[in-house]
Amino acid sequence: MNYFKLMHLAQRLADFCAVILSFLLGYFLYVDDGVRSVSYSLLEFLSLGAVAGFIFILIFQSVRLYEQNTSLLNVVETRRLFVAWVFGALALFSATFYVRFLDLSRLMVTASLGITFILLLLERAIFYRIHMWVNMANRGHRIAAIYGAGVVGKHLLKRIYHSPALGFSVLGFLDDDTTIWGKEIRLRDLHEKRGVPVLGGLDKLDFLQKQKGLSEVFIAMPTASYQRNLEVASACRKLGMSVSVVPPTYGRQMHYIDIKEIGGIPVLREKDIRPYFLYPFFKRIFDVVVSGAAIVFLSPVIMLVALGVKIDSPGPILFRQRRVGFNGQEFDFFKFRSMYADANPYALTPRAGDDPRITKFGRWLRRSSLDELPQFFNVIRGEMSIVGPRPEMPFIVSQYNEEQRERLKVKPGITGVWQISAVRGEPIHANMEYDLFYIANQSFLLDVVIMIKTILTAIRGIGAV
Fold first, then answer.
1. Of 80, 220, 286, 353, which one has the fewest beta carbons inside 10 Å?
2. Separation CA 337–CA 130 (nearest Å)
């Protein structure tokens, strides 16, 4: 049995055990107060838990929760888990209603199912980490290569590198351009001692398969002709390799398409990305309540930070800058000042902690992300949201193309997908797919996931440089 089959089996077993444990906890929470009692034994109730475990496994299988691929921030999988849990709970309640083999306490069953969802979230988070650690230790990796050493191929390599749970180990690039064969491509945030080699062209596939164990090829040539993409894909399939292709729609539509079927013919269709119609209303209420509470409860921290900025270097406490927000409207953006007062406010953002423009206290502020606290006032004023794409400076927005202007269709945020990603040290406009992902998947679930990960990131001290 190979590694992936073993992991799939272990995941199902872990899900089943999480359900059983939930019913065990639900039973004891119900009867432990010494007042309530039930007419059935713990063993009988756990037998219901076993039935529930099998039901959940079947539903998880049907909603593709046992697939190896993972989405950005695991938000798609979390959403599927919630939907599967709802269907599983309804199925179990229906079964207990029509098949009364036990005089069950509805409160006990409800409590057990509530605990089930929490334990499944925790168990799957732990399982994901274990899977990632195993892959990072070079066990169970799928040997891959990227055909296309251009901008898209480099971008794809970075995403694979920062997604170790996928289990890919990239040998290097393949490309039709003979002038770059044998050269190495260096990417800033891969932390590799050497660059990533360009191994050759299409004729290298057979050698790499036999000598290096190459089994998967990513074709990253969205601007190449259909015929050329087809030739590369056919060559890979003849050698028994798995093939994945970056589609020609890479760009604005890459997060906005659904695959539909018309009479057996697959078609790409632009999907409606509008969120649930009450979402903006409730998000605004949430923003105001959370921002107001944050300002009140963090007021001692805000005052201490303001004092630290004032003592550290002469100049204003707050850094004010014009930024572009929703629908291209400009507003005054606030942060605690982390650079010397004479620094150009519209120069490029510091890329390293030793930038001479940053003050001593400012370095700590930026690492802890406490310099962002004044933006809660931007949220109260309605110019920003807690979660959303980061607002950019006007001179950068003026150079946006059509794809990049998509990020102006939602309110900018204090935090977002890019801020908690592995490439947060790079320019915002160089990683536009994070904002497009957020726009295409707006939901309270995604907002909550981003907020939790932001807090964890700040606690670990890995904010901006």
1. 353
2. 40
Cβ pair 384, 414 in contact under 8 A: yes
Cα 391 versus chain centre, distance: 20
- What b/e readout covers 34-46, taking b as 16+ CB neighbours within 10 angstroms? eeeebebeeeebb
**Alpha-carbon distances, residue 127 vs 57, 119, 131 (angstroms):** 16, 12, 6
d(CA 441, CA 448): 13
User: Is residue 100 exposed (0-12), middle (13-18) or buried (19+ Cβ within 10 Å)?
Assistant: exposed
Q: How many CB atoms lie within 10 A of CB 278?
A: 8
At 218-256, the pLDDT tens digits run 999 988 998 999 999 999 999 999 999 988 766 555 556
For the chain, counts of helices (H) and of strands (E): 14, 12
Structure tokens at 276: 């649930």
| Burial annotation 357-386 (CB, 10 A radius, 16+ → b, else e) | ebbebbbbbbbbbbbbbbbbebbeeebbbb
Helix (H) or strand (E) holding 452: helix 444-459
- Residue with the two structure tokens 């994901």: 128
Residues 270 and 256 sit within 8 Å (Cβ to Cβ): yes
Closest C-alpha among 309, 297, 290 to residue 376: 290
State the virtual CA torsion across 345, 348, 353, 357 in degrees, nearest 10. -40
Delimit the domains of the chain by residue range.
3-136, 142-248, 279-459
Query: Which CATH architecture is the domain 142-248 placed in?
Result: 3-Layer(aba) Sandwich (3.40)
Overall pTM > 0.85:
no
What token pair was written down for 342?
A: 């004479």
